[in-house]
Amino acid sequence: MGIGPIAAIPKALAQAGLTRDDIDVYEINEAFASQFAYCVEQLQISIDKINPNGSSIALTHPLGMTGVRQVVTGLTELRRRNADILCTSMCIGSGMGAAGIFVNEARSH
User: Fold this and answer.
1) What per-residue confidence (pLDDT) applies to 67?
2) Range(s) of the domain holding residue 10
3) N or C, where is the chain less crowded by C-beta within 10 Å?
4) Tally of domains within the chain
5) Is residue 90 within 8 Å of 67, Cβ to Cβ?
6) Distance of alpha carbon 62 from alpha carbon 52, whole angstroms
7) Which residue numbers delimit the Thiolase C-terminal domain (predicted)?
8) Sheet containing 96-103: order of strands
9) What are the pLDDT digits (tens) for 74-84?
10) Inside any domain, residue 109
11) Strand duo 85-93 + 96-103: pairing
12) Distances, alpha carbon 95 to alpha carbons 31, 35, 42, 57, 92, in Å
C-alpha cells in the first residue's frame, strides 16, 4: 500500500520529457512515514525538493482531496521560490499511484 508513486513519477517524467533533476518541487503523499521513506529511497530524489512545507501527515490527508491539497501547496511553493516545475504524486490504494507535472506559467523569465 502506498508505493504507487515509485512507478507513477518516472512515467509522468518520461511522458513530459523531463528528468527527476528538472523538477523544482515534489509533493509526494506521505500516508505513512515508512511508505514515504521507501518511496524517496527508491526514487532517489533529493529530500530538499520534497514536501518543503510538510507532508500529508503534518498538513492533512483529506479523503478524496489529497491531490488538490498537494497541487495547491506545490504551486504556492513554486511561486514563493520563483521556480518552474512541480511534480505531485499520491497513492490511491491497492498499490496504485498517480502523478502529475505542473508548470508555473506566472514565473517571469
Assistant:
1) 81
2) 5-103
3) C
4) 1
5) yes
6) 19
7) 1-102
8) 25-28, 85-93, 96-103
9) 999 999 999 99
10) no
11) antiparallel
12) 12, 11, 15, 19, 7
Residue type, 45: I
Measured CA to CA in angstroms, residue 81 lies from 24, 43, 64, 78, 94 at distances of: 9, 23, 28, 5, 35
Round to whole Å and give the CA distance between 22 and 61.
Answer: 27
pLDDT, tens only, 90-107: 777 666 778 999 999 876
Distance of CA 24 to the CA centre of its chain: 10
**What CATH number should be reported for the domain holding residue 10?**
3.40.47.10
Strand segments, DSSP code E, in the chain are 25-28, 85-93, 96-103
Which three cell numbers, joined as nine digits, stand for 102?
505542473
Asked if residues 85 and 101 have their Cβ atoms less than 8 Å apart, the reply is: yes
Distance CA 78, CA 86 (A): 7
Intervals of the chain under pLDDT 70: 1, 61, 93-95, 107-109
Three cell numbers at 39? 518511496
